Amino acid sequence: MTGPDRSTALEPLPDRQVALIDLLDRLLAGGVVLTGDVVLSVADIDLVRISLRALIVSVSAENPSPWEQSAPPRGGDDS
What we know:
Elements: H1 6-9, H2 20-30, E1 32-42, E2 45-56
């Protein structure tokens, strides 16, 4: 069984310029999960611990925004 030549497998990929907007478009098309932890401590004693998680995806016709359907206006006249 012969596989790819080891010297060709270790060659670097050619340089490609990718615009930031293209990178964001690709990431948001599939979805991005951001996670983080914040710990506030004094004298090595943890006082507050916050775990943060956010799911960020693009809005499309297949995946509409939950805020797209507008609610009736508040505080207006009742006519």
